[in-house]
Amino acid sequence: MSATLDSSEMPQVAKNNAGTPSNNIVNKTFSDKKKDNDNNSRLNNIIKVKSVIPRKRQDLLKWYGWGYKDSMFKLQGDMAYFTGNRYSIGEKPLPHLQKWAVDYFNIDTNKPPKIPKLPTSYPESRLPGNVKQELEKIAPVSVDGLDRLIRAHGQTLKDISYVRTNKFPRIPDAVIWPNSHEQVVQIVESASRHRFVIIPFGGGTSVSGAVTCPAKERRPILVLDTSEMNSILWLDKEQLLARIQAGIVGQDLEREMRSRGFTVGHEPDSYEFSTLGGWVATRASGMKKNTYGNIEDLVVHTKVVTGRGVIERGCLVPRISCGPDWEHTIMGSEGCLGVVTEVTIKIRPLPAVTRYGSLVFPDWESGFYFEREVARRRLQPSSIRLMDNEQFRFGQALKTESSWGGVLLEGLKRMYITRIKGFDPAQLCVVTLLLEGDSEQVCERERRLHEVAAQWGGVPAGADNGERGYTLTFVIAYLRDVAMEYDVVAESFETSVPWGRALALCDRVKRRVRDECRQHGIVHYLISCRLTQTYDAGCCIYFYFAHNTAQCSDPVATYEAIEEAARDEIIASGGSISHHHGIGKLRKKWYTDTVSEPGRLLLLAAKKALDPDNIFALGNMAFEEGDIKDSVSVKSKL
Ligand SMILES: Cc1cc2nc3c(=O)[nH]c(=O)nc-3n(C[C@H](O)[C@H](O)[C@H](O)COP(=O)(O)OP(=O)(O)OC[C@H]3O[C@@H](n4cnc5c(N)ncnc54)[C@H](O)[C@@H]3O)c2cc1C
């Protein structure tokens, strides 16, 4: 195997600071043996990546919400704007956003925004002093209140509401930052000896409550922050593979790969902050999965530290017919079976051409049938997304220009679409496209897509609109913070569904949400959806729901009750518990209906086999939350 490495930086060889050999957990792993063979060429070229995100995350990121501290929506007078210059709409007035927010949510912009105050006190750490000292010999440890608070949660509405009001029933007792697989082995051994709980923490972007501390846990909880484990261990240009530590953040990974002429191509909307290990642990899906695959298609090999030892396959092969693929037990295990420390992942040469595109359709059904036909013919470009009319209008509200009507409906294009084609602006829908490949492939694919679009009344609406659609994806995540400042709660939920049931599902879920709002006395709300991924057998539908909380004594509980009703409707309509957001604690209720009893028992058996002491007591999926009794309950169920 000819391995070519790119960095001249010296390796960060893992140190056992405690000075004790790792005895309990398997000492020599398969990939160590492999390293012995390839040592000379690989070890000298480990690339320690300098992450955009510092260890003190709070220096760069908001402690109470989404993303960078310097990036947020602000309402001022009758104008809205987005601060900072990290995103294309930064520091530009958004003349339509405030009117849109008032129209939909009846917000009172004269009231001062509710900006949360940093807590002044935190629960005392329950980590015993002797254990802390032992851990400090392995890797840096913090018991600082804010370090613990910001790693007590992910990004669900409840998480963010609790962090803003300092209402968490339980936060971690300490945070540790290992920088190597070997250090993780020692930490897990220590947990086994001293009976504390470990929560693996990547980017904290979970939207399922997966990373949130189990409220009932009585043992000390240690958050194992993977962010210092972000080295590229080797990169093989011939085999198009790279072995990477699991804590690398998406944007760092992509930047490093691009600078060497490659891409992993996995771009979930959270990829600025989420990590490789998090993607594996949640079975993530990226926006360009049509070209590069979802995470399960990209991963070739994982190395995982469990309570029972290190689990990994002994060879690096593209496929193996060797019984059920247990690596799929790790993918989607949501931190409950162990810590993913290293991942071998496919890489691709950078495409010669990246082209955006957009199409306008007279209504949702036409756009939907276009997408269905594209999937039937397997014509999907890297990304293809259909937005409903509500989202089209929201896109208009985020325009930086002052003329109402929007980019899509400007000038001649506007006249063509509305007057000549006769599209109703209150019905029309937009498809955004992202095409990658060589110039000829991209042109040919675009031509064929336009041909199919024409059959469903679709009209090309230009590259700028497509690009804008994709780049705005990253700022949309910032809206919830400003919404909460004006008493609006918001969240997204998603599903996968067979083609034949998708249209009915969208209809029924929207109707159910409207009915629920009526029953809860909610007048001002938004329910909207888009079709974000397509497959041979169906698609992913992604809903946004937001409402004014004026009528709600407990806004989060009301939101959750409505989302729960929506999920019941999804399941009744033939949809799944989740397409890529995972189960966590939020969607556990539907786990047993999704997986039959033998399936649940198989998961519990895997837990018993890999984590007999219930070190990873996160309480996600089929596992009960928390305290030491739960490990017994897992055992007794078997
Ligand atoms: C704005 C926004 C957009 C999003 N868009 C997408 C999207 O397009 N596609 C998508 O799939 N998801 C998306 N998500 C969800 C989320 O980003 C993914 O679930 C992501 O994979 C989580 O990665 P993370 O590193 O942030 O993990 P975390 O949130 O830190 O953890 C998630 C779970 O994985 C476990 N875990 C993390 N690292 C490890 C590890 N090394 N070993 C073992 N367990 C580990 C944790 O214990 C936890 O149970 C989005 C979320 C937000 C807030």
Topology:
Blueprint: H1 30-43, E1 47-48, E2 73-76, E3 79-82, E4 93-94, H2 97-105, H3 129-136, E5 141-142, H4 145-149, H5 157-165, E6 174-176, H6 181-194, E7 197-201, E8 221-225, E9 231-236, E10 241-245, H7 250-258, E11 262-263, H8 276-282, H9 289-292, H10 295-298, E12 299-306, E13 309-311, H11 327-330, E14 339-346, E15 348-349, E16 353-361, H12 364-376, E17 383-387, H13 389-397, H14 411-420, E18 429-437, H15 439-455, E19 459-460, H16 463-476, H17 479-485, E20 488-498, H18 499-519, E21 525-534, E22 538-548, H19 555-572, H20 591-594, H21 597-610, H22 629-636
Helix pairs in contact: 12-15, 18-19
The protein binds flavin-adenine dinucleotide.
Write a structural description:
35% of the residues lie in helices and 18% in strands. The protein folds into four domains: 1-42 and 125-349 and 611-627, 2-Layer Sandwich (Uridine Diphospho-n-acetylenolpyruvylglucosamine Reductase, domain 3), CATH 3.30.465.10; 60-105, Double Stranded RNA Binding Domain (2-Layer Sandwich), CATH 3.30.160; 353-476, Alpha-Beta Plaits; 479-582, 2-Layer Sandwich (GMP Synthetase, Chain A, domain 3), CATH 3.30.300.330. The protein is α+β, with helices and mostly antiparallel strands and 638 residues long. The protein is globular. The model is unreliable at 1-28, 39-44, 403-407 and 627-638 (pLDDT under 50). Strand 21 and strand 22 (538-548) form a beta hairpin. The chain has 22 helices and 22 strands. The longest helix has 21 residues, at 499-519. The strands form five sheets. A seven-stranded antiparallel β-sheet has the order 19-16-18-17-21-22-20, with helices on both faces. Strands 1-9-10-14-12-13 form a six-stranded antiparallel β-sheet, sandwiched between helices. The chain has a four-stranded mixed β-sheet with strand order 5-6-8-7. The site of flavin-adenine dinucleotide has 37 residues, from strand 7, helix 8 and strand 14. Residues 168-350 form the FAD-binding PCMH-type domain. One of its GO terms (biological process) is lipid biosynthetic process. The record marks 385 as: Important for enzyme activity. FAD binds at residues 200-206, 269-275, 282-285, 334-340. Residues 1-29 have a biased composition (Polar residues).
